[in-house]
Amino acid sequence: MGVLDTLGTDRVFYFFEEITKIPHGSGNEAALAQYILDFAQTRNLESRTDAAGNVVVKKAASEGYEQAPGVILQGHMDMVCEKMGELAHDFTTDPLKLQIDGDFISANDTTLGADDGIAVAYMLALLDNKELAHPAIEAVFTTEEETGMGGAKALDTSDLRGKYFINMDSEEEGKFLVSCCGGRRVHVSLPVRRESKQVNAQPYLLKISGLKGGHSGSDIHLQRASANQLMGRLLYTLQKNVTFSLVCIDGGKMDNAICRETEAVVALETEAAKVAERIITEMEQTLKEEYRRTDADMIITWEALREEVAEVLTEDTKQRVLSILTLLPYGVITVSHEIDGLVESSNNIGVVRTTADTVAFENAVRSAVASRKEWICDKIATIAALCGADAESSNDYPGWMYRSDSHLLVLLQEAYRDTTGREPEMTAMHAGVECGLFAEKMPWLDMVSLGPDMYDVHTPQERLSISSTIRTWNFLKEALRRMK
Predict the structure, then answer these.
(1) Residue 412 CB: number of other CB atoms within 10 A?
(2) Which three-class secondary structure state does DSSP give residue 372?
(3) The pTM is what?
(4) What is the rounded average pLDDT of the residues 96-110?
(5) Of the residues 10, 29, 128, 145, which is catalytic?
(6) Which residues neighbour 143 within 8 Å (Cβ) at sequence distance 6 or greater?
(7) Residue 405 annotated as catalytic
């Protein structure tokens, strides 16, 4: 038996568990795409794939709905791959290990992939259901959403005929998303020079861990700590008090995930190490106090390494690394003057990585205002230039503007109210969704994004509400029934 077998619900949870057995991190969606294509073939549903790995499956309208406007259902196949510490889990080969705790489904010390695996499960269950009343359905499964929406950018939409568009990449039940920010990735690359380590210098590992992390779009307003930013601050404070060399610095795995862990290797002499240990202890208390409400479990560790280190970064290179980390913006930059509480612009220093030739800094810039997005990217490029680094932008995607005449929104609000007894909300969000790209390609679409309750996505604490998943499923079926 599967872990979720007892949950029922028209095979939604069955398909979700099947998805978690198939590795599908960003760039590794081929196996899941093939699973969907095989699913369609066995049910005699029209399907296609493309060079970007996207999959489109079409299901004809049920009897009586032949003249109704068609609906496009959309979600992405890829997931963010995060795990706890040194957990022996290979996201390219290993299935996720599911567990149920009360109302929540989670994975054992890894991300769950409910973002956006539950959308894939909903679509498969809708395509599989022979009793469902619905207009023509075009189910679109896209790739590499988490790394810049590459699949949606590459998708040929010329054969899609739907008028309504339901994206299922939102994480709060009953909050219908009608607008989102655009974004861009900015890669800063600093060339490095190295020199021999001083003979009497001992290498130490400095590590920041225990942070909550989260989604750099939907969680950025919570002002949680970034381990990458804090490491820059810690090293900057350290250099004001002791002489040390920097060997390397590494933190984060995804530019759109708030960094939870960062480590740096430094080298310094015995007396300096004693002073450094005292400063690090004091800084740990300072930072834990500053972030006591958002990251109370923060831990800063300091330990001597047994492994020998032959080379360190030159002093000049070290200063450039610390300057970049000190100057790069992190977190909320501007807030909206039109929608109360909405973050308008932000940046996330998601990844810092030392390689043989460079120290790289991966930034995820977001803004609801295109000109502000451009300005933030210009600022980052200026910081890079002043520090002798290169800045390269990629994965630009547009925002999605609110339509005040949305018939789909009214239909969904009424169906949700009638099936749940709850009053739905209309909202906008700081995170980007693929609606912006579809709106650009298909400007006639009437679009809404929705989904069940999920928590701590993009972290190993990610969990999916069972009751919310069921309510959202029943609401989706009713909404489709009303599209006659």
Answers:
(1) 23
(2) helix
(3) 0.75
(4) 97
(5) 145
(6) 26, 27, 29, 33, 52, 53, 54, 76, 77, 78, 150, 151
(7) no
